[in-house]
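Intended use. Records like the one below are meant for learning the mapping from a protein sequence to its folded structure. Do not use them to infer anything beyond what is encoded.
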Amino acid sequence: MPNLRYEISDETLDNLKMSLLYISQSVNGNDWHSSMHIHHCTELFYVTRGKGLFQTEEKIVPLQEDDLIIVNPNISHTEIGIKDETFEYIVLGFEGTEFYNGDLNLKNSIFQANYSNYKHEVLFYLKTLLVEAKNKDDHYKVICQNLLEILIINIIRRSNMQLQISPSRKVNKECVFVENYINEHYKENITLDQLAELAYVNKYYLAHTFKKQKGISPINYLLEKRIDEAKYLLRTTNLSVNEIGRIVGFSSQSYFAQSFKKAMNKTPLEYRRESTHNE
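Structure written out for the chain above:
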């Protein structure tokens, strides 16, 4: 058998300048709902099992297993579960790069494709990223960065998407972590001390930096998240006000009523009546 030699040409991707901020794995069901939110980074969203919906301000699109969605920075969006359907997915966020589809005017959009034919390679990179980020073994950040770049190159190979260096503002990683932690754990008892401990920063630094980046303190962001979820449940279910307050994380009915009235200038019952009347 002859020897085979392949020369590797010198090639660089100047627009492949990205930095991994976070990666998470979620399992949702029972008509699960998240309120609309934005990220100041690019997100990659991959459905590993089941079905769900993905909503932006412009549309709602159905999702199935092996669907991949890329969301450019500052696009308002949310994920929605379907009753009696499992909905499992992996999300990673990274800064420094935006995607577009041949037309730079489309860069402020989402991109969706099904990768069932390439699921093994995509899932290999995503699941390895999860393991590395969780275990934090020696040099895990280097491994995660390389895995991210290989994953993105593979996705570009299988699509007509292109990359552009993102001019978006610098994202504070601790603030991104805290924002995503609140979005996922808002139903739990959360304090500023706990958030600072999880993010490995001083609580005063966290409060100042988060407010500078988001325009709101971490605890007020938590309250807004709970109020948004309560509004959704008041509009779409017949659960009692007490039940809704408990479900979204308020420690007492009086605290829920007080917080809701302060945010909406009306009580939860008044909000429910008005929403029902408008529909």
